[in-house]
Design goal:
Largest sheet: 8 strands, mixed
Number of strands: 35
Shape: elongated
Strand order of the largest sheet: 18-17-19-20-26-25-24-22
Radius of gyration: 40 Å
Strand content: 25-35%
Number of helices: 11
Helix content: 10-25%
Structural class: alpha+beta
Length: 639
């Protein structure tokens, strides 16, 4: 029994009745011979007798022409109805194909690459679908991207295959399987086909292991090689006291089962700054530290290659990128009646733009990153930035100043008895032997942090009020031997660096495959993001951060139109991103795939050939009948 899966039968009958009537009417109203007067009718008598003798045959010829035209109409209508046998409607498969587009699929151990071979294998499956099968194609990387609907249209599926693009991220296998399970839920003959090299990790997430139930799971393995070395870590930071110099830390990993001779290059602003030859044992990790570098002002790049000049099987992890912290001048406002030790220490750093203000003239007519209050505590004016209090007095403070304590105990010297040595304020300093004549104990809130404490109470604290950072030192440095030590200017510069967030917490690059939150102007709603390949896309801004799922390594440029600015005025910033995923660099292909303890089967039941759909044969019949009509017409059989 046939079922019409295209235009319904009732609609076809209505269209056929109207179109058939039109064909018959036009056939009846065809052009007839016009009467012409002749001078001698005897000449035509024999012609008329011959015509009468063959009139029955002529009528049959005209009837055959009409039947051929009606047959053409019927065949076209049947093709529109797409008739299919009942068995085909029941037995068709519903298939979700998950194509792995993670970084490891860029390997070139098979020609031209794993991802291109995977796409060719999927094309073969698409061309081998039966007339009742339906397929959905999805790309699997850090996200799951469906590239088609659940359809049996070959052209749509082939276009989806062409849209698969590799990324520099790991594949979220669990999310992809859950997507496939939700798509196939309740459908007959469900099947999930995974096309991958098998470097997918465990199919589990926060919701636990993925369970496919009665869904058939098939696996098409891709790849055969395993020779690869990768840059698995890469970071950079400037020295706090000399921002023209920086240090680099990176890690190189040999993920293959054979030793490799490698060349490691380091480039600053595109210029080669270091070239090293190294030899790595199988599965060996080698950290490399480059101290006291200079010459680069913005970008750093590391490159890895085999010593013979060739490439390993996965070029995608042979490059790493980093962005140096911006070397900008910090604007510092010093509110003091005069302090030679403070002024001299601030002159040591050329990247400080210092403005001295008398306490009676505070605030200065500008905005600052940091304000230092030396022995005074006025009401904080807008634009003062972060706050450093030296010998604070009074009540207009974000903390409480306790009673005065003096160095009057012959058994104990007043100074720092306890120090938070890992705090950024104390980097490169030694304060344990500082002697203080007199001080005030500082009492902060519960969330504030005590950095230095004497036996009589805290002398150095830090905290935050309404988003504004502050640091407080509870004594006048002129009543101590603190300014006579190298630790004094280091302490001041550490405090300023900590305020402007140019410390070791600086992120020199993002990791691909994660949602990035990039600092941006909170007054804007969207930003323009230029990606490493030169393409640009619009990204949303939420709470002063541009939000973007990054899946490609390289340098990015974020452009934000400032609110109220003239057309074309934009804030521009750069950042870097790296793969840094050892599991993706381990490219040895897996021979089998298991989900919930069940092994995946081989891909089968795809045969390339003519699809068993009746409308194809009906259209072929239309062409055949049209050819017969044309031949008989020109041979005057149906005329």
């Amino acid at each position: 029994m046939l079922h019409f899966t295209g235009v319904p039968l009732q609609t076809l009958l209505q269209i056929g009745a109207v179109a058939g009537a039109v064909v018959v009417v036009f056939y009846i109203l065809k052009l007839r011979r016009r009467p012409v007067a002749v001078p001698f009718s005897k000449i035509w008598e024999r012609v008329l007798r011959d015509k009468e003798a063959t009139s029955l045959f002529s009528q049959l010829k005209r009837l055959l022409s009409l039947l051929l035209q009606l047959a053409l109409l019927a065949l076209l209508l049947l093709a529109l109805g797409d008739p299919r046998p009942q068995a085909n409607l029941v037995e068709g498969r519903n298939i979700v194909v998950l194509v792995d587009a993670s970084a490891s699929m860029q390997a070139i151990d098979v020609a031209p690459s794993r991802i291109e071979l995977a796409k060719e294998e999927v094309r073969k499956m698409v061309r081998g679908l039966s007339g009742s099968d339906r397929m959905l194609l999805a790309q699997m990387d850090a996200a799951v991207t469906p590239l088609s609907t659940l359809t049996g249209e070959i052209s749509d599926l082939e276009a989806a295959v062409a849209a698969v693009k590799p990324t520099d991220a790991t594949a979220d296998f669990a999310r992809a399987l859950r997507f496939a399970g939700d798509t196939l839920s309740g459908l007959p003959s469900p099947e999930v086909i995974v096309v991958s090299d098998g470097a997918l990790g465990e199919p589990a997430d926060a919701g636990g292991p993925v369970r496919l139930g009665d869904i058939k799971l098939s696996f098409l393995p891709i790849g055969k090689g395993a020779r690869n070395a990768a840059i698995t870590e890469f970071s950079v930071r400037r020295y706090p006291l000399d921002k023209s110099r920086y240090e680099v830390m990176l890690e190189v990993t040999n993920t293959s089962d054979e030793p490799l001779d490698l060349e490691l290059s380091l480039l600053g602003d595109g210029q080669l700054t270091d070239l090293t030859r190294i030899r790595l044992k199988p599965k060996e990790k080698l950290p490399r530290f480059y101290p006291n570098l200079s010459g680069a002002s913005k970008t750093l790049e590391a490159k890895l290659a085999l010593a013979d000049g060739s490439s390993d099987d996965l070029p995608a992890d042979n490059r790493a990128f980093a962005l140096l912290p911006e070397r900008r001048r910090a604007r510092v406002q010093v509110v003091s009646a005069g302090n030679m030790f403070l002024e001299a220490a601030l002159l040591l750093d050329e990247y400080l733009d210092v403005t001295f203000v008398d306490p009676q003239r505070y605030p200065a007519a500008s905005s600052f990153d940091v304000t230092i209050f030396d022995g005074v505590a006025p009401s904080v004016a807008p634009g003062s930035g972060s706050l450093l209090y030296l010998n604070p007095t009074g009540t207009n403070l974000p903390f409480e100043v306790g009673n005065e304590v003096q160095d009057d105990d012959p058994n104990y010297r007043l100074g720092f008895d306890e120090l938070d040595a890992k705090h950024p304020l104390l980097r490169y300093t030694a304060l344990s032997d500082v002697n203080v004549a007199r001080a005030h104990v500082l009492k902060g809130n519960k969330e504030d942090r005590v950095v230095g404490r004497s036996y009589k109470g805290p002398l150095l604290i830090e905290g935050r009020r309404s988003g504004v950072k502050f640091v407080a030192l509870g004594f006048d440095v002129r009543e101590s031997d603190f300014p006579l030590r190298i630790a004094w200017p280091l302490f001041l510069l550490n405090a300023i660096n900590n305020f402007v967030e140019e410390d070791t917490s600086y992120i020199s690059s993002f990791r691909t495959g994660a949602v990035w939150h990039i600092p941006a102007s909170s007054s804007a709603e969207t930003a323009s993001l230029e990606q490493p390949d030169g393409t640009t896309r619009t990204v949303p801004i939420q709470d002063g951060r541009a939000v973007f799922l990054g899946q490609h390594a390289g340098f990015y440029t974020l452009r934000v139109g400032a609110a109220g600015a003239q057309a074309g005025a934009q804030e521009e910033s750069m950042f870097a991103a790296n793969l840094s995923a050892p599991q993706e660099s381990a490219i040895a292909p897996a021979a089998e795939l298991k989900v919930d303890g069940r092994g995946a089967g081989a891909v089968s039941e795809f045969k390339i050939g003519v699809r068993r759909e009746l409308w194809v044969y009906l259209l072929a019949a239309v062409l055949l009948v049209t050819a017969i009509e044309w031949f008989t017409y020109h041979r005057r059989v149906t005329v």
